[in-house]
Design a protein that fits this description.
Number of strands: 6
Strand order of the largest sheet: 2-1-6-5-4-3
Strand content: 35-45%
Helix content: 25-40%
Low-confidence stretches: 1-5
Oligomer: single chain
CATH class: Alpha Beta
Number of helices: 4
Mean pLDDT: 88
CATH architecture: Roll
Largest sheet: 6 strands, mixed
Number of domains: 1
């Protein structure tokens, strides 16, 4: 192997305290969901590292640019709003720092209708990295029922 393959690139803007990394990532994720709830597509779009990947049982989707993300997000928001959605709430949330500038997030999200009734709930996983001075989503995927995903944490009923 060549030296470049044996030696990982130097990490920049690294944090050394695991608790500090977890707290930063949790704050980032909460701001990401808050932007989603406000339908602040510009802020929401800045939460991703481009290209980023969405993985599902149906395959892999790669979003290559912020412009592509905005094109995909607009119809998704319209569809969500037409279903009666008013907001999403974070239930269970777990952050695993896996490097000085890299972490994994597991989150249970519940979406509610305008009348307060349950629209849907789901479990999502993300990998994030520190990109300069901001955390960014690199990959995201859903955890299908009845599977629990990383950590085997039980799902809590949202109803």
């Amino acid at each position: 192997m060549s030296k470049t393959q044996d030696t990982p690139p130097p990490e920049t803007n690294v944090l050394s305290d695991v608790d500090a990394i977890a707290a930063e990532v949790e704050a980032f994720y909460r701001a990401y969901i808050s932007a989603f709830n406000r339908e602040d597509i510009a802020h929401w779009a800045r939460s991703f590292a481009y290209p980023y990947a969405f993985v599902s049982g149906r395959g892999l989707a790669i979003c290559r640019s912020e412009a592509d993300h905005r094109v995909l997000a607009s119809p998704a928001f319209a569809e969500l709003k037409s279903s009666g959605w008013s907001h999403s709430e974070i239930g269970f949330l777990k952050v695993w720092p896996i490097g000085n500038n890299h972490a994994m997030v597991l989150s249970d999200l519940t979406r509610y209708k305008k009348d307060g009734s349950l629209l849907e709930s789901g479990r999502f996983c993300y990998t994030v990295r520190l990109d300069g001075h901001e955390w960014k989503i690199v990959t995201m995927f859903t955890v299908a029922e009845p599977f629990l995903g990383p950590g085997d944490f039980p799902r809590r009923s949202s109803q």
